[in-house]
Every structure is written in structure tokens, then in C-alpha cells.
Amino acid sequence: MTLFRLVYFDFKGRGELARLIFAASKQQYEDKRLEYSETCPETIAYKKEKAPFGRLPVLEIIEENGQVKRLAQSIAIGRYLANKFGLAGKDEWERALADAIVDQISDFSVKVLEYIIEKDEQKLDELSKDLHENVFPNHFGYLELKIKESKSGFLHLINILDWFDDSIQSKIFEKYLTLKEHNVRVKSLPEIEEWLVKRPATIY
Ligand SMILES: N[C@@H](CCC(=O)N[C@@H](CS)C(=O)NCC(=O)O)C(=O)O
């Protein structure tokens, strides 16, 4: 039997999409969390010797004969797993539409990341203003349309929204009701709910 190991850090970040896909498809895997540190020998060695592009996440696929294949890039990992476990769409066109939505959410995630890693208070205020006045209206309008057209759930989206703290999420859901309904619906799926209850609590 093929075994899977997801190697990432102890936060949701770019590793959580794969974890959500594993949860949604009820697949066993090892959730290996390395220390997020520039001095941890295990992390340094893994990035240098095993990670295909020196960064995480990395999905390890351990074949029955013991051979290990390593896949980098969170979205490539997500696509591989979604295809493998039947979550990527039923035909070429559905898969292409799903890819487009994932890429759109990734564009949005760049803005979210800028905000959550900013330490300077003044810059944070500017980024927050930009998020609320420009980024949210710009992205959520389109994404809400796609949610309405689809009966599916967008795991990548619920993860990116989870990078925000509760107060920002509440503000978003006050205004974007379709987004809120989608978030509640996807997080209430039994397989996802089970993972959300047991996953380690992390800030982002
Ligand atoms: N585009 C890549 C980004 C990978 C990336 O930047 N990973 C960060 C963590 S989110 C990392 O490995 N940082 C540690 C380092 O750069 O040394 C992906 O989506 O996987």
C-alpha cells in the first residue's frame, strides 16, 4: 500500500490545503511538522537534502517497494491529491474550472500573507485598509458568484480565510453572507469537522 507523509511546519499556512484534502477523503497520512526555525538541524537538513525546491510543504509518496517520491509546491500537491482522491472534478472541464478558482484564490492569498506577516504597526494599518476597501470587495464578489454556481466546497478558500484571526473573519462574514454560508457548510461536513476539532491549534 502506498503511504503518504506531508512534511510542513506546525501551522496551517501552505500545508493545510493538503491536510484538508486528506481529511475530506478520509485518507491516512503522516502529518510531519518540522520546527519553523533557521537553526533547527532537522529543518535545515530536510530543506537542503530532501525538499525539491528547498521549501515546504513537501508531499512524500512512499511506494510499496520503499521508493520515496517527493512533490513540492502546495498547489501542485493539492491538485495531485484532489485528482487521486476524486475531489478535482468529474471531467476535464470541471477540473479546469476548479483549477481556475484555485488560482484565483491563490492570487488573493498573496495579499492575505502580506498582511499576516507584517510586523510594523503603521504598515499593518495601511494593509488592513487596503484589504477591507479594495482586496475583499474585489475578490469576494467574484468568489461568491462561483460559490453560488457550484454545489461544491472550496477547501483552499476556507483555509486562506482561516489565516485571519476571528475578529477579521467575523467582519468578513458580516458583509459577505454567501462566503459565510459556504464556510459554515464546508466546515460542517463530518470529515472536515472531525479534522478541525482534532487539529493542533495554531495562529495561522
Ligand atoms: N509557492 C510555494 C511556497 C513555499 C514556501 O514559501 N514555503 C515556506 C513556508 S510557507 C517555507 O518553506 N519557508 C521556509 C524557508 O523559506 O526557509 C508553495 O506554495 O508551496
Automatic annotation (TrEMBL):
Residues 91-204 form the GST C-terminal domain. Keywords: Transferase. GO terms for molecular function: glutathione transferase activity. It holds the Pfam family GST_N. Residues 2-89 form the GST N-terminal domain. GO terms for biological process: glutathione metabolic process. InterPro entries: Glutathione-S-Trfase_C-like, Glutathione-S-Trfase_C_sf, Glutathione_S-Trfase, Glutathione_S-Trfase_N, GST_C, GST_superfamily, Thioredoxin-like_sf. SUPFAM superfamilies: GST C-terminal domain-like, Thioredoxin-like. This is Glutathione S-transferase S8. It comes from Brachionus calyciflorus.
